[in-house]
Write a structure and sequence with these properties.
It is an enzyme of class 3 (hydrolase). With about 150 residues, the protein is of the alpha+beta class. Helix content is about 25%, strand content about 40%. It binds adenosine monophosphate.
Length: about 150
């Protein structure tokens, strides 16, 4: 059976110039792992016994980025599932999309990550490196653009 993990694609909206599109001011939060090849990923982690997927996504975001559920707005209508092999086992990762209410909210990393960045879509895709993660970020961005 596949290992199951859940997480949140977190974004913030910067104050944009009046003439620019609202989505121009969107930045995505990526964390750099302190393990393995130090890849960049949204906060996510394994589902604990007795927890549902969304609870896991919020708990992992709190543990890995220091953001509480009360600091976030879950965006209805977006959910994405990724499947890839990790450490020789199939892994499923489910992501939701959430906006941080205060764009200056403090990010507090756990020992699992060594750095974080807020990145515009293009740069987020460069750092995210895996094609399925890049496609996930692009889809999330298109989803946000389509809502405006
Ligand atoms: P993670 O799931 O981020 O904890 O990473 C576990 C392993 O899977 C690491 O070796 C990563 O480099 C690899 N990995 C992470 N994300 C992806 C992905 N989207 N596609 C393929 N491999 C990945």
């Amino acid at each position: 059976m596949a290992v199951r993990a859940c997480g949140l694609i977190i974004y913030r909206r910067l104050q944009s110039a009046p003439s620019s599109k609202v989505t121009d001011g969107i930045e995505y939060l990526l964390l750099q792992t302190s393990y393995g090849t130090h890849h960049w990923t949204p906060p996510k982690g394994h589902v604990d016994a007795g927890e549902d997927d969304l609870q896991t996504a919020f708990r992992e975001t709190q543990e890995e980025a220091g953001l509480q559920a009360s600091q976030l707005t879950l965006i209805e209508g977006y959910k994405k599932e990724l499947h890839y092999p990790a450490h020789g086992k199939p892994k499923t990762v489910v992501y939701w999309l959430a906006e941080v209410k205060d764009c200056n909210a403090e990010i507090k990393l756990s020992e699992e990550h060594q750095a974080f960045q807020w990145l515009k879509l293009e740069d987020a895709c460069k750092f995210a490196e895996y094609e399925d993660m890049q496609a996930t970020l692009k889809e999330a961005h298109e989803f946000l653009c389509s809502k405006k």
